[in-house]
Design goal:
By secondary structure, this protein is an all-alpha fold. It is built from three helices and no strands.
Length: about 100
């Protein structure tokens, strides 16, 4: 192996590394600029703020007497079946 080929390979590796770093830094720079532009757009044109739904307000928003969240449209038997399946899974995974 002669020194000319090693130097050539090192130069090629360095140039590829430099091109890759320039590409990554330019992409990240454009991403930051885009995020700032979107933030300014959202500040300039604010939309209506929607009222958060009950499940986003906190864990104590809608609690039944069994201390489980109640959501309209979900059958109690369905919740009980899911709770039993989770309980069984947790019991089996402890072993």
């Amino acid at each position: 192996m002669n020194s000319g080929s090693v130097a050539s390979l090192l130069f090629e590796a360095g140039s590829l590394m430099l091109i890759g770093m320039i590409f990554v830094f330019s992409f990240l720079g454009l991403l930051i600029v885009g995020i700032h532009l979107i933030a300014r757009f959202c500040e300039a044109f604010p939309g209506e703020i929607a009222e958060p739904s009950a499940h986003l307000k906190g864990p104590s928003a809608n609690l039944s007497r069994n201390n489980q969240a109640v959501q309209p449209g979900i059958d109690g038997n369905f919740i009980a079946a899911i709770s039993a399946a989770i309980h069984t899974h947790r019991q089996n995974s402890k072993k």
